[in-house]
Amino acid sequence: MKTIAKPTQSEIKIKKSQFICRLFPSKTKEESKEIISKISEEYSDATHNCSAYITSNGEGFDDNGEPSGTAGKPMINALRKNDLHNVTAIVTRYFGGIKLGAGGLVRAYGKSVLEAIENSEIIEIEIYDVYRINFGYENIKLIDQEIRNNRLHITNKLFDENVTYNVVSPNNQDIEKIFAKFTSKVKVESVGQEALEKL
């Protein structure tokens, strides 16, 4: 699977209408909806703010007042065509006074997203099983060494009453098994899956 490394923007003009496409990395549909809401508010002076997203827990699109099927659908199709996941696309349109017709709109919105994709840094992502390991501060050296020895990857660290690491294995090793010998010192639990840049 692929996604974009960072937010990107591109702009095209068709028959005096301005189409500004913004792409954002987004892991969940909730995150996508927040982004869409924020951009729609920021560019509330636009004629339309159409959107499409594909994330780990859902996908969707919105024509935002354009004729049904002429904006959101070609946008999500452009994302699918490029095998992009965990991404949100928003096309802000400022109407230039000349109607484009249904076919013209489909082409314009699709092209707008494709141009933004061309300007993006595309990275490979994989779905990894994520485990949370919790342990006392006195065991940091021991746990860090075990992580290095097994070539595990830490995705998040939290230093509170105890230390908590979120870890993944690039080659799908059984993380619970790795830490089984430390049962008195370490608590290990599965916390689901996450799409990350290929390790």
From TrEMBL:
SUPFAM superfamilies for this protein: Ribosomal protein S5 domain 2-like (SSF54211)
GO CC terms of this entry: cytoplasm
Pfam families from the UniProt entry: Impact_N (PF01205)
Superkingdom of this protein's organism: Archaea
Residue intervals of the Impact N-terminal domain: 15-117
InterPro entries: Impact, Impact_N, Impact_N_sf, Impact_YigZ-like, Ribosomal_Su5_D2-typ_SF, UPF0029_Impact_CS
PROSITE patterns hit by this protein: UPF0029
UniProt family annotation: Belongs to the IMPACT family.
Protein name: IMPACT family member YigZ
The organism of origin for this protein: Methanobrevibacter woesei
Gene name, Swiss-Prot/TrEMBL: yigZ
